[in-house]
Amino acid sequence: MNQHVPARKGYTACPHDCPSTCALEVEIVDPRTIGRVRGAEDNGYTAGVICAKVARYAERNHHPDRLLKPLQRVGAKGEGGWREIGWDDALDLLAEKFLQAEARHGSEAVWPYYYAGTMGLVQRDGLNRLRHAKRYSGEFDTICTNLAWTGFVAGTGRLAGVDPREMALSDCVVIWGTNAVATQVNVMTHAVRARKERGAPIVVIDIYDNPTMKQADVALKLRPGTDAALACALMHVAFRDGTADRAYLDRFGDDPAGLEAHLATRTPEWASGVTGLSVEEIEGFAALLGRTPRSFFRLGYGFSRQRNGAAAMHAALSVPTVFGHWQHEGGGAFHNNGALWRFDKALIEGLGDLDPSIRHLDQSRIGAVLTGDREALSGGPPVTAMLVQNTNPANVAPEQRDVVRGLMREDLFVAVHEQFMTDTARLADLVLPAATSMEYDDIYRGGGQSHILFGPKLIEHPDTVRTNHFVVEELARRLGVADRPGFGLTERELIDDLLRRSGYEGLEALERDRWIDVQPDFRTAHYLDGFATPGGRFRFRVDWRNLAGPNRPPASLGLLGPVEALSAFPDQVALIEEADAEHPFRLATPPARQFLNSSFTETESSRKREGGPELRMHPDDASGLGFADGQRVEVGNARGTVVLPLKLDAGAKPGVVIHEGLWPNGAFERGEGINVLTGADPAAPFGGAAFHDNKVWIRAA
Fold first, then answer.
1. Which residues form the 4Fe-4S Mo/W bis-MGD-type domain (predicted)?
2. Are residues 226 and 360 in the same domain?
């Protein structure tokens, strides 16, 4: 008689591009199968709660459509003709194509392209080891974080803030620029605890009635790209009404008198006209902040999706500084903890081989790069060979038509190492099946919290699947650089080296303890001994040109975007795509709850919960145009057009239309996705793509 063998428990970290980086408990059914996935209750930030999509991770890991064998293109690009090819032959072919590109145009003709499909430092960043050893073109990462990070550091001088767990100790939680219910569920864990235990109101500032705004006690729905106007009015009221903490500002502000004078005309009436909020809403919020010292500002990545995002983040961050909230437990601000880790990735990334004279290409401008734009190519050779890992640019990158046109070039060889047949993989010459995070060792750090976590290999990957690390190592051997530092080591050896050279104990200790909490002490996190700027004062007055940011462009690129338009003091900066007579609507493309960028779009449960791509419009706008619910409409601008079914939604703001999620291009009527409409022009001062910042026209399809 067969007896049921209970599943054993494994511990790991969520690998996906999310600030929470949850600590996970995973049921291991057998050596190749996982079962249920839960949040680790004993992790102070995860606190037992994870998002629904990762809770269903077994569905993704064991999906019947997962790529299992290397495939070589047969026939024309994009036609879908493939033949199976062995791993050795596939890697031989890829190395041969890299060598041919190098022989014809020089090493910079090869562009390894990656991002955050996994946040593991070995499997994600190891591609740079090959890049540097071979002197391939560099990649300047701009697609997600740059505007928000830059704006935060403009004020504090350091990419770190108050312990996010302090939200639970707050008397007012402000969630600004992030749909936390959909994208950072753990934010809500701590915010709701503050509401239950302390009666703290939750204030949500966003551009439509998303799931987080529906949970708000105070919901402020403003026009896209007008956050700085609201922030300026809040500070104006603080100075006007005497709720600004002048003693704190005298000690910790660089020029509070100059700021006050600058804000003299930034009244609630002025801000109302810019933001679409009522004067009463602005005055009421300012009064709440003025009487609530323990106000916690959780500032999100929405600031990175608008062309004035760096200035808007700096303005929003200035608000708790003017009120003096930083002084109090449960008060202050948080965005990202990138400055805490002190990681030395010398071996993982092969930094000893880094040559600063090699050009960098802007990740967000992949369409311009691949279609031969001389400026985007920094005056160098065309890109004629690529290896793509951990990203899906044919779907997720802006100016999608240019990206696809570039990937379709016959003189460009593209290999895609992936878990599923993504839009990018469909356009490739060679597709390599990739392992999942449950099938390899890696190390993670939580940008939205303070833990370093080990993610061990929990199950065996399918026999015909390989890790990112394996591909990098095998290419190095074929390309003659396997003797360079960092190659020839296992994932575990690279993790141990990273920890030890970064001042931590080695892997054995991390594996035993499961995570390391690097949250600094209260005084440091609240900047009570001074901000991390020259002189120790919060910068209200910013020299954007000379700012030392966490992701400043390399010298070969220089400053990016219209830097001259940025204001020294916090202000509403006229850089966004304003609606006009030809384009009367603003389009925003925020994340869907069940997807994570283009991941999880392949799982049936996520697709079923999301329904399908659609355009949300306020009923008054639809009525004025004679549109009905469910009607097919065409949405367009100078970049292109897409066709979508219309959903009437009073949660949308008049004049603003919303498309949630990164659906596969094939889910759209014409086979082109929403990023046909988004722009890749760099945002000031350090670059970045403004995905929520688009003017469009809409007509019946």
1. 7-65
2. no
Residue type, 151: G
Which of 72-76, 105-109, 173-177, 593-597 shows the lowest mean pLDDT across its residues? 593-597
Q: Do residues 87 and 200 share a domain?
A: no
Q: Are residues 229 and 299 in the same domain?
A: yes
The pLDDT of residue 683 is above 60: yes
Residue type, 1: M
Instruction: Give the CA count within 13 Å in the CB-facing half-sphere of 469.
Output: 23
Verify that 267 and 167 share a domain, yes or no: yes
CB 284: neighbour CB atoms within 10 A? 14
Final residue in a domain of this structure, among 289, 307, 335: 335
Report which secondary-structure segment, H or E, holds 53: helix 52-55
Q: Are 184 and 320 in the same domain?
A: yes
Q: What is the CATH number of the domain that holds 260?
A: 3.40.228.10
Assess whether 195 and 314 both reside in one domain: yes
Question: Model's pTM, two decimal places?
Answer: 0.97
CA dist., res. 198 & res. 550, Å (int)? 36
User: How many angstroms separate the CA atoms of 37 and 10, rounded?
Assistant: 10
Tell me the residue length of the chain.
701
In this structure, are residues 365 and 682 in contact, taking their beta carbons and an 8 Å threshold? Answer: yes
Please name which of 2, 1, 8, 38 lies closest in space to residue 22, comparing C-alpha atoms: 38
- Specify whether 187 is located in the same domain as 328: yes
Closest CA to 143 of 695, 550, 691, 601: 691
Q: Which residue has the tokens 């949970």?
A: 215
Tell me: pLDDT of 2 over 60.
Answer: no
The reply to whether 305 and 204 lie within a common domain is yes
Q: Indicate the residue among 335, 360, 394 that finishes a domain.
A: 335
pLDDT at residue 1 in the model: 42
The answer to whether residue 496 sits within a structural domain is no
Any idea what the CATH number is for the domain that residue 24 is in? 2.20.25
Q: Which of 243-247, 332-336, 556-560, 672-676 has the lowest mean pLDDT?
A: 556-560
Instruction: List own/partner pairs for 85-88 with CB under 8 A and 24 or more apart.
Output: 85/430, 87/432, 87/464, 87/466
CA angle 624, 579, 540 (to 5 degrees): 135
Q: Which residues contact 511 (CB under 8 A, 6 or more apart)?
A: 454, 456
Provide the domain count of the chain.
4
Q: Cα(599)–Cα(18) distance, rounded to whole angstroms? A: 12
Q: Is residue 255 part of a domain?
A: yes
First vs last Cα of the chain: how many Å apart? 64
Query: Could you tell me the residue range of the domain that residue 479 belongs to?
Result: 71-144+343-439+463-489
CA 179 and chain centroid, separation: 13
Strand 640-648 relative to strand 632-637, pairing: antiparallel
How many Å apart are CA 351 and CA 344, to the nearest integer?
A: 9
Q: What is the pLDDT of residue 446?
A: 85
Each as own residue / partner, the long-range contacts of residues 79-86 (CB below 8 Å, 24 or more positions apart, any chain) are: 80/426, 82/431, 85/430
How open is the CA angle 39-41-44, to the nearest 5 degrees?
A: 105
CATH number of the domain that residue 132 is part of: 3.40.50.740
At 669, which CATH number?
Answer: 2.40.40.20
Q: Which helix (H) or strand (E) holds 297?
A: strand 295-299
**Is 479 inside any structural domain?**
yes
Q: Is residue 444 part of a domain?
A: no
Q: Taking Cα atoms as reference points, which of 613, 591, 588 lies closest to residue 182?
A: 591
CA distance 138 to 480: 20
CB within 8 Å of 623: residues ≥ 6 apart:
none
Question: Tokens standing for 589?
Answer: 């493309």
Handedness of CA 265, 271, 272, 277 (dihedral sign): negative
Phi, psi of 657 (to 5 degrees): -115, 150
Mean pLDDT of all residues belonging to the chain: 96
Report the distance separating Cα 363 and Cα 243, nearest Å: 44
* 446-498 per-position pLDDT tens digit: 899 999 999 999 999 999 999 999 999 999 999 999 999 999 999 999 999 99
Q: What is the pLDDT of residue 5?
A: 58
